[in-house]
Recover the amino acids of this structure.
């Protein structure tokens, strides 16, 4: 499938690499290609410069957001939450019309220290904001509840565990479930939480997630939902 | 142990009954004893009148909040979140000084329909508000992530699953962990999330919880944290 990954950080890179490895036709979208490639300092989380990763993945194409949008039949929003809306506007509503947008961004606010707060919570969510701003795009919130290495390889966590999808468009959720399957998520580990309103639930879970990161001292964890 | 359960709803009753069954010296606290016993209509969730339950549990003592506070060495806040602060003020700071207060209330706001929103989230939590309002009380947030029947009998959910504690006072958390053990929670299922700040994490998880209630169509569920 033709896939566009928006965002050049740790999450975007890992997803793009994994998707290319699965045989998809992947491009990575960024605001300014030259600027992204020219950066030599590590990112805020100590992520090496994108150029290093590009060198290790020479076949990967880095393109401006709007070109990525035009390329992707499926578009992944892997930008930092605070930049998500600007990145999607640069991608262009017309490039996103009718397409499945897998939104895995988290609206984190690190200004008050760790664990981060959210820039939007309780009465709204980033997923809902995106769906409202792009009403002709089929937004699905998923994968935002686990670390990127777990997203693309759920076997890193022992036992069965759970991943959530939320979105208004059933067909779009099926596309995303298919992608999750390719990453290694068995269908029975996937819980469909309902409409995009439930993006609020998985984004607000981030508060517990970051507490658990701190307590468990690892990102290789996840929750499993068990029922009677 | 002398235990006070604040709150006469479904949660307070189940906890009080279970604790009495375990041999504890339990009282239930309410704002106005006569009014609570006089009520004949079911509660908002269809809960039968307290008087019915009192009749079925004749040994249980229903007392005003301040009397409950004076009785309890351990105090459980099982009030509805919106009433929690008023109930604790009626219980009295002097009655709560130095004591362990297990806060399992959730600041739910049903005014916008289901799933409920929270009256406080992201930048604060009910647990933190209570600890700030009663600085000489040893507040522990726990048990608020599961339905009351699961709180008092974790075997209702198959497989190992997880319960969280959060609070500033290590000794108080040990008291609560002991109580969880009596309810049937093995020590290895309990995760200490750290200070009372983490009440925010478990309260904000409620958004996912209520989505799961809806999707799973049962309250008999919980999450298990699995790590590599």
């Amino acid at each position: 499938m033709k896939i566009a990954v928006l965002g050049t950080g740790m999450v975007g890179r890992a997803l793009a690499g994994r998707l290319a490895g699965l045989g998809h036709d992947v491009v990575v979208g960024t605001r300014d290609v030259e600027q992204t490639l020219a950066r030599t300092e590590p990112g805020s989380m100590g992520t090496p410069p994108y150029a290093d990763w590009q060198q290790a993945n020479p076949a990967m194409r880095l393109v401006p957001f709007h070109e990525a949008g035009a390329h992707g039949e499926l578009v992944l929003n892997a930008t930092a939450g605070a930049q998500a809306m600007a990145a999607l506007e640069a991608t262009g509503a017309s490039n996103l019309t009718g397409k499945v947008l897998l939104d895995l961004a988290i609206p984190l606010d690190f200004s008050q220290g760790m664990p981060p707060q959210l820039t939007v919570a309780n009465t709204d969510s980033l997923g809902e904001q995106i769906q409202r701003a792009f009403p002709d795009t089929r937004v699905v919130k998923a994968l935002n509840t686990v670390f990127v290495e777990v997203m693309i390889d759920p076997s890193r966590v022992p036992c069965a565990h759970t991943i959530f999808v939320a979105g208004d468009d059933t067909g779009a959720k099926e596309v995303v479930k298919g992608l999750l399957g390719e990453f290694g998520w068995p269908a029975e580990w996937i819980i469909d939480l309902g409409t995009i309103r439930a993006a609020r639930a998985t984004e607000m879970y981030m508060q517990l997630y970051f507490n658990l990161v701190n307590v468990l001292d690892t990102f290789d964890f996840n929750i499993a939902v068990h029922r009677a």
About this structure: Chain B touches chain A through 42 residues (CB under 8 Å). The mean pLDDT of chain B is 96. The first strand of chain B starts at residue 2 and ends at 6.
